[in-house]
Structure prediction request, 660 residues.
Amino acid sequence: MAEKTMRDAINEALHQAMAQDDSVFVIGEDVAGCNGSPSGDVGAVGGVFGVTGGLYKAFGPNRCIDTPISESAIVGAAAGAALVGMRPVAEIMFADFIGVCMDQIVNQMGKFRYMFGGKSKCPAVIRFASGGGFSAAGQHSQSMYQVMTSFPGLKVVIPSNAYDAKGLMLQAIADDDPVLFFEPKALYQEACEVPDEMYTIPFGEAGFVREGDDVTVVAFGQMVNRAAAAIDALEGEGISCDLIDPRTSSPLDEGAILESVEATGRLVVVDESPPRCGLTADIAGLAASKAFHSLKAPVQQVCAPHSPTPFSPELEAAYLPSVDKISAAIKATLA
Amino acid sequence: MSIPRDRLERAYRQMKTIREFEERTHAEIMNGQIAGFTHLYTGQEANAVGVCEHLNDEDTIISTHRGHGHCIAKGADVIGMMKELFGSSEGLCKGKGGSMHVADMEKGILGANGIVAGGPPISVGAALAAKIRNNGRVAVSFSGDGSVNQGTCFEAMNLAVVLQVPAVFVIENNYYSEHTNISYAVGCDDLKARTEGFGFPVFVADGADFFSVYEAAGKAIEHARSGNGPAGVFAETGRFHGHFVGDPQAYRAEGELDDLRENSCCLKNFRAKMAQTGEISAAELDAIDAEVMALIEASVAAAKAAPRPTAEQVTQDVYINYGAA
Ligand SMILES: Cc1ncc(C[n+]2csc(CCOP(=O)(O)OP(=O)(O)O)c2C)c(N)n1
Ligand SMILES: [Mg+2]
Prediction:
């Protein structure tokens, strides 16, 4: 099987879904690129992160659609097209720009099905590049998925590797509900084996990245690799851990997490977002309310502090959860 | 419009400072010394300087992701800015903001901004404060040809008219928003007319010519300052680098960049004008160039030697100062 980067895996999913179903189209800023430009080389960009590369040349201007800088209209247009039967995949470049188009996502797209008495479908996917690690400072580094998880009606996907990204993207496009798809931008270049054929990964089914007996570690997105590195290093000290990647924060595979916690009695939750009302608190709360009697130690939350993301590389390194911090948290549950 | 000689000298010095700041920043990014996302203003200097030469420290500007030029033109400390780009704790924003968030409240710089069209509504707020206090200040926001398509920009322009506040909207048309040309992204074929449709006058300028921008901005700022409500400046300009450092620029026509650098350089144009009028000699301009080069060199040396931030600073200035992360 060929190794593919997460960027290429998502790109392949988009190519295949568009070839299979002509109601699928992509829309966003520079998803083609160079429209109206004197070079005439329309399609040369394929998204600022390169995820929609080649789609313009393969499917033309009706299905790979560049927009002005207008995030509210992009999301709204995707939601509207989806309401009348299309399957749009919109790109909002940086997850932080959710700040601009929150209404269309939260009050509009996310609530149609429920408010309309179950009589509508809105099969739109909105893609975002999320997370830190690039010294991109306060407005280009947030993960945002933890915020969006709190809104009922929106499905929230956070792939942690190229294989999952492809299967989850194909599932997102096939899904009849609105899906927010967060691509940790630090992982675009990370590669693993990815099948050429189409496959889906169901939402609400966690992935088991490591299996062990002593501690349950739950990690999201970019933090899955760091948690795995911490766990692998601790193996030499005789500590073995389950590493669970929920893959979707909404729906959340509560069963997988609780089952593991019941077996280990110890829980570490890792996410790069700030702590308040975030995923680490959410899952700590889950364990406290549904696995309390199994817990042998306080749940450890490893996350960013309650501050915006700083610019300076040293500050950002201190800001994001590190392998060392994750190891220390695992050990703390055993102390 | 006659401009006193000392102001002329300052305008040239500011444009040259921006140019060399940007060229050096480009080099330091290539050297791996500056992290993050940086958007260079090279080529557009006359716009920032032509506008800011009409402003004092009490007037405000709000900038964009391409903010270095606006900030320098409004009086930001060049050394503090370079330290910020290098991520030092002595930077203008203590290394917390970097290139996209340079700000200096003392100088009326309400910040560069990483969100396209995040600025105009905030600028309307500053203008509203000026109107309420009746203190004669104006608030300038800078936008690009892409930024003007954002709902926040429309809302800000309309609100400024409704409230009749002294907001000045400067639109720098460098023809591209990232990789997309204005001819695609602006639906109508006359952005100036579209902007005027909000209900305020828009003065047109050649963004490669300091004197043209100075004149247009003078009219717009005078209009706003004297209580006639908002006004706009629409400048045609060109950026000499990619959208960001590393941009392959597949959207450019062949020879476009050479043509821009050759024929749309505000420094060359300024020198040509001075040669014509004889107001400042070439030797005097050369002397300014040398001083600017020395300042930029000093700023980089200072930035390299400046203290690095430490982990406990991560959680300071949130709404309280927390302890170590
Ligand atoms: C809300 C938002 N959308 C998209 C972006 C990404 N982005 C940064 S700059 C830019 C283009 C801006 O074009 P323009 O307003 O013409 O300014 P220029 O870059 O030409 O100075 C885009 C799309 C952003 N930073 N914020
Ligand atoms: Mg532009």
